[in-house]
Amino acid sequence: MSAQPDRIALLSELALVMQSPEFVRSPVLRRLLEYLVDQTLAGHGARLKAYQIAVEGLGRDDSFDPQSDSYPRVQVGRLRKMLDLHYAALTPDQAHGRQRIAIPVGHYNVELLPLTTVSPERAGAGPAAADPQTPAKGAAQAADPAAAATQTVLPTPSSSASMLQPAPPPVPQGVDRGWLIWALPVLMLLALLYVIWLVARPDAADRDLARRDMRQQVAHVTITTDPAAGNDDLDTVAQIAEMQLQRFEMLAVSMGSHSDSPAMRDAAREYQLLLRGGGRQQGASPELLFLTLRHGATGTTLWSYELPRNGSRLTAPDFEQAIGSGISAIARSGGLIAQHQRKLIGDDTSPGYPCLIQYDAFRQQRDPALRPALEKCLARSLEAYPDEPLFLQAQSYLALSSPQAGRLTPLVPSKRGRDLAEAALQFDGRSSLAQIAVARSALARGNCPRAIAFARRAVESNPLEPDTLGLAGTFLLSCGDTQGAEPVLERALTMNSEPGGYQIASLVITRQLNGKVASAMDLAMRADSRDKATQPNFLLAKALSLAANGRTKEARRSWGELEKLVGVNPGTPAPDILARFAISQFFSRRMVSEAERVGLIAPAA
């Protein structure tokens, strides 16, 4: 196997491939190629198995059986053919300076090879391998299929000589081989139709057409550099920024040199992310990089961000993380772009992007008054844009969070909620929003292994979205993984200056269960507010942290506030109190045990 491909080079080539018509028309193969590239760059490419590709890369359910279903192998085969078609169609000018993404036969890792030296065995035996004795002719035919189909094959000296060879012995009498005359053409036609079906299935194209129409509506960020020609530093930062922005599904992103800026885009949703450098002139500040976000229609500067290099390499993890933190501020749920669009859109609940902005507002505010109009606009949106994961996962959340009389439980089991979440994952297995929707559905019905698995996948898919991190950390805590929950929740807190009460409560409890009782109480006291006093999880976390630090009187007062909030009489058994608002039975039992341990409640008789 070859060495690990260069990260920046591979991501740059991937971005170019994704803009080709072949991949625009095939969302399944787009997701699969992105997944294989991600796994390769993470160092897992050589260990990929069919099951992992089916579940993580293609969105199949975790009950998938690779022994009886060849779906992932077929899709990888289609992907190899699609890559062959893409590179074969490049003109010499388009191919200049490019490398080729290849998937070796028998493996699932991705390689980056020079366009002129791709062997058929490593690239999947593409069109260029049709005639191994004449590679130049084969490549030309692959680049121009029409010419290949009409080319006249002239006799060569060797073929002329072969015509002088003695005739083969006669076929024995009684053996009828006439069926070959009609069977071979039929088989060749069937093989050709099968290849065409694999490469471009109509159902995938129809689904992708609706999705591309929807994606034209979302806010669009164009990354540019000053100077426009860029330099090595600015180009590197631009590539990192593009990679980070692509994690956010409510945004479209393109580089200035590749931005098509289609006329159908709404100018009010256009943004420019300008990257410029400083500090190279004498007397200037030491090596700085500046990121500025401007609204395209008005030119208003909405955000600026300064990155001091401090002598570090631009590709160093800490520098890449610093860029990601800045990108998160503008692109996250409730971030600068979402807030700006909310002001522009106002109360518009039209199907499509306006409805998604209203959903984002609902997720931030949790205002029950917004729910009826939101349910209607999401239903209309899914009618207009079938199979769009953004709407599927949003409707899944509404189905799972339907209010229940006499209960404060934030999630309830729902077959509709589960089906919608699984459908979102099926249509976009790489979507962090779809993955967290599946984790939410699994937690609601008590399936902790699946909840943990997809919470972790959501964090891997987008570690820059604090809302996703907060949910994932809470799900991990609810299922008993306190060690895994703590770093996720801590990261969510550092990326969001105004976290929700559930997120604060989860981190307070996680710190306490991990032995950090002083910092747990400090966080609870600093976050305490009138708004959070109406959230049962926060009152529970506050009571536990106070009791763990010896402030028993204040802890029991907070426990009394919890009893009043959930509507039970003083002295009601703790399991009955927790049953009013806790999602996970495991979490309820753990909290009762912790409350007894710190002296908040008396041990059960």
Walk me through what this model shows:
The protein is globular and about 85 Å long. The strands form two sheets. Strands 4-3-5-6-7 form a five-stranded mixed beta sheet. Strands 1-2 form a two-stranded antiparallel sheet. 56% of the residues lie in helices and 8% in strands. The chain is an alpha/beta fold and 605 residues long. Among the domains are: 7-144, no CATH class; 212-332, Rossmann fold (3-Layer(aba) Sandwich). Residues 117-167, 202-206 and 281-286 have low confidence and may be disordered.
Question: What is this entry, summarized?
Answer:
The protein is of the alpha/beta class and 605 residues long. 56% of the residues lie in helices and 8% in strands.
Number of helical segments with 4 or more residues: 29
| End-to-end CA span | 64 Å
Strand content: 5-15%
> In terms of quaternary structure, what is this?
single chain
Principal-axes geometry comes out as globular
Q: Show unreliable segments.
A: 117-167, 202-206, 281-286
Total strand segments: 7
Q: What is the radius of gyration?
A: 29 Å
Strand order of the largest sheet: 4-3-5-6-7
Report helical residue fraction.
55-70%
Q: Please, what is the average pLDDT?
A: 81
* Main pleated-sheet profile: 5 strands, mixed
Alpha-beta content class? alpha/beta
